[in-house]
Amino acid sequence: MSSDQNLSADVVIVGSGVAGSSIANELARAGISVIVLEAGPRVDRQHFVDNFRNLENKPSYQGPFPSTP
């Protein structure tokens, strides 16, 4: 994306983690225009799913997102 490109939206969400992605989806479904900013690399959905399936220890559906560091 060019740095001189102008974008506009009703809502800007910083971070495309679980919470950011979920709220972006809900807002978009409600007809609200959304821009999601993410500093990390783009991870292909299939790569993410494969990584989750191959985890040795999946204590819950939140397995890839542990609640403790």
Automatic annotation (TrEMBL):
Gene Ontology molecular function, alphabetical: D-sorbitol dehydrogenase (acceptor) activity
Pfam families hit by this protein: DAO
SUPFAM superfamilies: FAD/NAD(P)-binding domain (SSF51905)
Top EC category: oxidoreductase
Keyword ATP-binding: no
Keywords, in A-Z order: FAD, Flavoprotein, Oxidoreductase
Coiled coil ranges: none
Cofactor(s) of this protein: FAD
Keyword Repeat attached: no
EC number: 1.1.99.21
FAD dependent oxidoreductase domain span: 10-43
Gene3D superfamilies per UniProt: FAD/NAD(P)-binding domain
Similarity section: Belongs to the GMC oxidoreductase family.
Protein name: Sorbitol dehydrogenase large subunit
Native source species: Gluconobacter oxydans (strain 621H) (Gluconobacter suboxydans)
